Known about the structure:
Elements (H helix, E strand, L loop, with lengths): L3 E8 L4 E7 L2 E3 L7 E4 L4 E4 L1 E6 L12 H10 L2 E6 L10 H14 L3 E4 L15 H5 L7 E2 L9 H12 L4 E4 L12 E2 L2 H6 L3 E2 L1 H18 L2 E4 L5 H12 L4 E5 L1 H5 L21 H13 L4 E2 L8 H4 L16 H9 L3 H16 L16 E11 L18 E11 L2 E5 L2 E2 L2
Parallel strand pairs: 1-4, 1-5, 6-7, 7-8, 9-10, 10-13, 11-12, 13-14, 14-15
Antiparallel strand pairs: 1-2, 2-3, 5-16, 16-17, 17-18, 18-19
Helix pairs in contact: 1-2, 4-6, 6-7
The site of zinc ion has 5 residues, from loops.
Amino acid sequence: MTSYLIRGARIxxxxxxxLLIRDGRIAExxxxxxxxxxxxxxxxxxxxxxxxxxxxxxxxxxxETVETGxxxxxxxxxxxxxxxxxxxxxxxTAGVVEQVWRLGREAGLVDVQPIGAVTVGLxxxxxxxxxxxxxxxxxxxxxxxxxxCVADPRLMRRALEYVKxxxxxxxxxxxxxxxxxxxQMHEGEVSTRLGLTGWPxxxxxxxxxxxxxxxxxxxSRLHVCHVSTAGSVEVLRHAKARGVRVTAEVTPHHLLLTDxxxxxxxxxxxxxxxxxxxxxxxxxxxxxxxxxIDIVATDHAPHxxxxxECEWAYARPGMxxxxxxxxxxxxxxxxxxxxxxxxxxxxxxxxxxxxxxxGSLAVGDPANVTLVDPAARRQVDAAELASRxxxxxxxxxxxxxxxxxxxxxxxxxxxxxxxxx
Length: 421
Ligand code: DOR
Ligand code: ZN
């Protein structure tokens, strides 16, 4: 196994130091290594962890595969991703989650941790085989019907009760379906102007309020996917003050983009939950810094051209995220490396229970590392992305921060900004 000496990189943004990667771990610096990397001006972070990735396999391999999505993740600085269950067939059995897990191992570019569906076929009617998925080779700990909300409060309660036995977590896509029928974008001034049916903030906030109360009642863990409104932040703040076991994520796009972009009618900006107002964006940024929102998760949602380059109303919701997440977060938060390491690596690893990820790059830790050049600026070119899909809303934007290298347990997956395999 190749050993690497990274000279003079700023570890988690601290003073320049040497970092030795040997036999899969961070080793005591000193002595030679097979390869030396000049780390001058670079920042070393623990490998990023994405709690919310759509890899589309099985079923929509034309949009993404476990392998292409894993490569996009590695290029984005990730060493682990949690694969959402809304595949075809749905990941609602031990067989499907084991298949995704095995494909991740075979690709060998990031650790792919499957998320299991909460309900059979994401239909919201019967609980899926949560126990069988938990005890499968994939050792599922997070369950989610993402794309759909677990709207039935009794099913949600049962799911929370079920996973309590093994300290699992239910990740909720918070959207009261009766309040978003036919919705095309955020309900507000812009939707009124454009004449598009609105998706009101309260459809998200009402489900989060209900679910934090259910989680408190049951004493279970709840995770809220892609929080998008200022009101949701207030509900979460209240729940956390009461000691409810709830964590929450925000996406890079909800930290940067607003509903004004819908005025272009370009479906690349169609996403669920929808882009919100500038005031929501500001509240989400503050909540992330404060810790009311725990993590950044991409909701990387690749879509084939025919599902995206069509009329707004017919386009599928979702946008790419893995290869641009760190640059977006850097542009939003600035070079607050400890904060970035916490929100994009340490805390997501803890929520997902991914041992060996989210460390502090201490001697002896598994060498899951990403090396970033914060001074480099890069123009996003959709054609250059490793994802099989092209639906990035950032095309043409110049963003700070280039991922120079990524190491998964000491093996380079990215070197010189390029995928190794
Ligand atoms: O925009 C979205 N896309 N939101 C979701 O909840 C699902 C996702 C997808 O699967 O494309
Ligand atoms: Zn979702």
